[in-house]
Amino acid sequence: MQTIVDLALQKLRPQMSVSLGGGRNVLALTEELAKQPSKNLKLYSPSELTRAYGQKLGLEILASEQGRHFDLAFDGCDSIDYQFNCLKSKGGIHYFEKRAAQKSDEYFILTPKTRLNETLDAQLALSLEVKLERCFEILAAAQQLGLRAEIRLGQAVASYARTPLGNVLIDCFATDWQQIKDYNEQLLAKPGVVASSYFEGLVTGIIASEENGQGIIFTR
């Protein structure tokens, strides 16, 4: 993890506007940034947890929606392929993370190299953020595409998981993700679907840690 953080720090220049996503590596980077106030960075995050952690460390981290443009964005992922498409399915802030990525000149994923593979991990869901009133229509649409789909449950008793926008999450599964681009496009076109966990064409670089502890940077 420290290797990833060190490589990420090398990308930073004073006065930069930077978005920090979520995940353990991003939190470790946030810790290091708190030790380097001289860089005078403008920090933002789509993650409520990252913002709260930064505040605990004495950093001012604004919501990413308050920033118009980012020089750099760092984020984590659950799986990424050799074309730099990734799945960020275990969380539920895809809408805000994707908007932050779109506003960034460079969007780097911080990840163990084991998550970088030829194809995306089929054990992970294609997750959809959906308006509650449309959720059963979207479930049916996903099933018509041959996907197994289910509404994600929350931690509270008899409740659905909710996004920051108050929407529900539908997790879709396939035997493999060879056709994930088509699935994603068809489902995003359905009324009521706000965002998905599939990030296509947004990642510009990967900072990865190998099993021997070494770090490596991949760029387009």
UniProtKB/TrEMBL annotation:
GO cellular component assignments: cytosol
Signal in keyword set: no
A Pfam family recorded for this sequence: Rib_5-P_isom_A
Organism for this UniProt entry: Ligilactobacillus agilis
UniProt record, GO biological process: D-ribose metabolic process; pentose-phosphate shunt, non-oxidative branch
Gene Ontology terms, MF aspect: ribose-5-phosphate isomerase activity
Protein name per Swiss-Prot or TrEMBL: ribose-5-phosphate isomerase
EC code: 5.3.1.6
Keywords in alphabetical order: Isomerase
Keyword Isomerase: yes
Matching Gene3D superfamilies: 3.30.70.260, 3.40.50.1360
